[in-house]
Amino acid sequence: MKRLYLFICLSLSLFVSGAFAQDAASRLAEEQAALSQLRVDFVQKVAELDSRIQTLEANKMATEQAYNDLKIRFVQEIASREERIAGLEAQLAEQTSNSAGANNQALETRLAEEQTALANLRVKLVQEVANREDRIAELENQLAATEEQPSASDNSAADTSAMTNLQSRLAEEQEALAQLRVRFVQEIASREAQIEELSSSPSSDKSSEVSALQSRLAEEQEALAQLRVKFVQEVASRENQIEELTANLAQEQDAMVKLQNQMDQNLAQANTTSEGKIADLEAQVASLTSQLEDAQAEISSLTSQLSSAQTSPPANSESTPAGTTDSATGPAEGSSYIVVSGDTLSSIALSFYGDSSFWTRIATANNITFENANVLEPGTLLVIPAE
Question: What's the pTM value of the predicted model, to 2 decimals?
Answer without folding.
Answer: 0.36
